[in-house]
Write a structure and sequence with these properties.
Elements lengths: L2 E5 L2 E4 L4 E8 L7 E7 L6 E7 L2 E4 L7 E6 L4 E6 L8 E9 L11 E2 L3 E6 L1
Parallel strand pairs: 2-11
Antiparallel strand pairs: 1-3, 3-8, 4-5, 4-9, 5-6, 7-8, 9-10, 9-11
Length: 121
């Protein structure tokens, strides 16, 4: 049974840094894309970052201040975010299982339950 469990969220201040973690169990997804998405109240789920065998990609909103990474030995995925802004406030989800790197959330078969990130000004 595949499980994705996010951690690392919390209440942050503008300009802070944080590292979100996604613990993966039941499968390694070495040959599939994994991604971080986020969803703020009243909005649709938004692509944040993707990592796959072909590299990594970022949304314009986090590019230059975020890094997605994988730890294959421990079956983890991370999202390092720096220079946090109030508009980064959202529930952050990790997702896995897309056959290609895509920002389309419908292409991912597995999702975690999310971790709340709140950034105050």
């Amino acid at each position: 049974q595949v499980q994705l469990v996010e951690s690392g969220g919390g209440l942050m201040q503008t300009g802070d840094s944080l590292r979100l973690a996604c613990a993966i169990s039941g499968r390694t997804f070495r040959n599939h894309a994994m991604a971080w998405f986020r969803q703020a109240p009243g909005t649709e789920r938004e692509f944040v970052a993707i990592i796959s065998l072909s590299g990594d990609e970022y949304s314009d909103s986090v590019k230059g201040r975020s890094t997605i990474s994988r730890d294959y030995d421990n079956n983890m995925m991370y999202l390092q975010m720096n220079s946090l802004k109030p508009e980064d406030t959202a529930i952050y989800y990790c997702a896995a299982g897309a056959p290609i790197a895509t920002p389309n959330p419908g292409s991912y078969d597995y999702w975690g339950h999310g971790t709340q990130v709140t950034v105050s000004s």
